[in-house]
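task queued by scheduler; priority normal; single chain, no ligands, no partner chains; default sampling; output format set to structure tokens
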Amino acid sequence: METKDYKDYINAFFQRAQKAQQEFETYNQEQVDAVVKAIAKTVYDHAEELAKLAVDETQMGVYEDKVIKNRMKAKIIWNSLKGKKSVGIINRNEETGITEIAKPMGIVAAITPMTNPIVTPMSNAMFALKGRNAIIITPHHRSADSSKRTVDLMRKALSELGAPQDLIQIVDQQSRENTKNLIETADIVIATGGMGMVKAAYSSGKPALGVGAGNVQCIIDEDADFETVVPMIITGRAFDNGILCSAEQSVIAPESKKDALMAAFKANKAYVITDSGEREQLRNTLFQFGSMNKDVIGQSIQSIAQLTGLSIADDTKIILVQAEDEKDILGKEKMCPVLTLYFYQDFQEAVDIARSNLSMEGKGHSVSIHSHNMAHIEYAAKELSVSRFVINQCSATSAGGSFYNGFAPTNTLGCGSWGGNSISENLDYKHLINVSRIGYYMPNNPVPSEEELWK
């Protein structure tokens, strides 16, 4: 395809999107919310079909976990969005005299990853349409078919409501040239995936919202109940074969409770590596030339064991390996069911270990803490440069928002300037609207005297 053909191909998407968006911009709040709800309900209703497509196509993850993810993300994101104003006047502040009016940004370009080929297109579409935008999705080439099926179902739902189908489109010819033209033409870009693609989005010349690398540090305080905490951590590490960026990666635990902790992990079906030779085998399997081995991403624990040369029980859930030191590459992100272990003497050392690992990878993303000591929790929160602290929850399924915390439900987790991102919170619809502000004259506002101002 020549350069002109690439541009013509993408321009056709934009022409359709602009026509659809101009019509959609006239919708009232009730009509907008009906469309957003229909998107979520479509994925919820087709959760099993879409989960199977994703696993079959990408050869990653766990079918049962993807069914859960498809249903839960549809539920919690719609629950978060319903009733929130995104059309017309959205806020009047009598104290400041400011009235806020929401307006669309226009055409959203969304780059979506192979690790989340269903719910990321769904959530990006929900956020975009909540703001009366149109969206054009370009999926990873290894998940193009499952993402296209998702978009086709969402377009059908729009049609059934009488809304323009072209509010949601998907690029069906994956190439760097098409992606480049897409992100350079859009009004705003969402990039969820590898850091190379995120950097490309930020270099597009258009406003961009991207994500940073994950490497969730999980600190267990001395007051934690291992019978509750350990199964939660294992669930998070094993969920969908460990491909979630929000999943627990390293456990940092008190040395004084070592025996009880190790017993709890073994009782909950963790294969514990204590032999230095096995640790080296695992290290060489997971990392090649300092980077994660792509052949282990989203693979089952049995596959990881086979690649490593380990003999594990059939019901093993994760591999637990103690790091050699704080420079051990095992402290980096591992997108498979392998968990790294560290021990600390006091809580300050626990935070220092987490900081060291985050400096290697994952700065800006998330930290999980299991503790009932508020002073310890807030000490870690003040010391560590991440955007989310997930307290006494499974980080894998909670950092992206849940019914039981106040994080905005999403599949795109911003990591702030620490992770090279423009936002340090969970992406949602408010990042995809422009807000006009009316500033009324406030004659009764208090004006300080010179003495009051400078004293």
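post-processing summary
- The chain has a mean pLDDT of 96.
- The first helix runs from residue 3 to 24.
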